[in-house]
């Protein structure tokens, strides 16, 4: 259905703000470059007005924390359905971008900057060339969405083609303009579509088991997760939103990035915000988790922010090992998403190998 809403002045005699138009696509583009959080607080802009080699230019390119490339096409007005075809044509070009080419694109955009250094400064982790551009998303930004475009986008997403539309509206306050925006689909759904299998040539049916990335370090502690039975993620919806994939009874394989696979277990419940999550304290009584856990920050600074706070999922562990005993071999699956449902031969190989390392799970427990 069309995305449209109004803004009202608050008072005894509320008045709606008149809707207007943004002066130009160029201004919208400059606004997003200056404030990428208009689209997502977890994306990093790396390119602008890049020539695709097919007679067109992609408005903006961005990276997600897992190396996913985001193609952003801007339309000041209504989205004609041919904009989807145009965006997919750009995606064909983007699929072939390697690390060297993406670094050169960022160098042009940043006037000489280094992509690896900028990525580490932005996301606090090293840029893994092996995972760079293994998947991509298409984002169309427009003032209006026509029914045909909505149907096409929905159809493609149901088939794991990661495409979304962000609709924006501009309102005149009398002292300036305000911009509001709304997504056609939950951005987490598009994130999952992008990462479920990577490039089309490498896809195969999902085996029903989930990969979980547990970012141990200053933020969270693996030994506490082993002891108390949980996995968690936070610091933004990109990191916590995928936890909603997990349902009671699902089997997960947990990897500490940069260290290796450390455990396998069964999900015991739904994600719970840090302020509401409880654990057994020293006396055996239930206590707020953040009063029990001391090995990491668990994003305590965001405890009152539902977008940024840590979310916990209770796990019944089947078998775990310490970080020092982690299974880390060439060829095993890895991904920076907190949870994903991989559809690649590498995931099947990883599960087969891990069943030897975690024999308690070999019988399908």
């Amino acid at each position: 259905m069309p995305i449209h809403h109004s803004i009202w002045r608050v008072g005894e005699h509320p008045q709606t703000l008149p809707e207007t138009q943004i002066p130009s696509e160029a201004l919208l583009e400059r606004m997003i470059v200056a404030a990428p959080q208009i689209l997502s607080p977890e994306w990093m802009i790396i390119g602008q007005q890049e020539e695709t080699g097919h007679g067109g230019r992609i408005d903006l390119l961005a990276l997600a924390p897992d190396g996913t490339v985001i193609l952003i096409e801007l339309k000041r007005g209504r989205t004609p359905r041919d904009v989807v075809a145009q965006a997919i044509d750009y995606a064909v070009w983007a699929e072939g971008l390697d690390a060297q080419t993406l670094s050169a694109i960022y160098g042009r955009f940043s006037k000489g900057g280094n992509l690896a250094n900028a990525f580490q400064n932005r996301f606090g982790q090293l840029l893994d060339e092996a995972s760079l551009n293994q998947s991509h998303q298409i984002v169309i930004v427009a003032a209006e969405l026509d029914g045909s475009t909505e149907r096409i986008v929905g159809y493609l997403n149901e088939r794991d083609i990661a495409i979304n539309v962000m609709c924006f509206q501009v309102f005149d306050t009398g002292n300036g303009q305000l911009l509001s925006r709304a997504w056609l689909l939950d951005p987490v759904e598009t994130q999952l579509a992008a990462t479920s299998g990577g490039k089309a040539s490498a896809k195969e049916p999902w085996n029903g088991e989930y990969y979980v990335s547990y970012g141990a370090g200053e933020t969270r502690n693996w030994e506490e997760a082993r002891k108390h039975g949980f996995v968690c993620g936070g610091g933004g919806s990109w990191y916590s939103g995928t936890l909603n994939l997990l349902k009671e009874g699902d089997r997960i394989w947990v990897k500490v990035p940069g260290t290796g696979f450390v455990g396998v277990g069964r999900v015991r419940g739904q994600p719970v915000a840090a302020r509401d999550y409880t654990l057994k304290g020293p006396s055996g009584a239930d206590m707020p988790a953040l009063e029990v856990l001391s090995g990491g920050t668990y994003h305590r600074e965001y405890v009152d922010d539902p977008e940024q706070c840590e979310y916990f999922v209770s796990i019944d562990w089947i078998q775990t090992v310490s970080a020092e005993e982690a299974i880390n071999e060439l060829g095993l699956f890895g991904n920076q998403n907190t949870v994903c449902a991989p559809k690649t031969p590498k995931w099947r190989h990883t599960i087969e190998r891990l069943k030897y390392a975690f024999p308690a799970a070999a019988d399908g427990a």
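The domain at 8-197 is CATH 3.40.1350.10 (Trna Endonuclease; Chain: A, domain 1). The longest helix spans residues 82-95.
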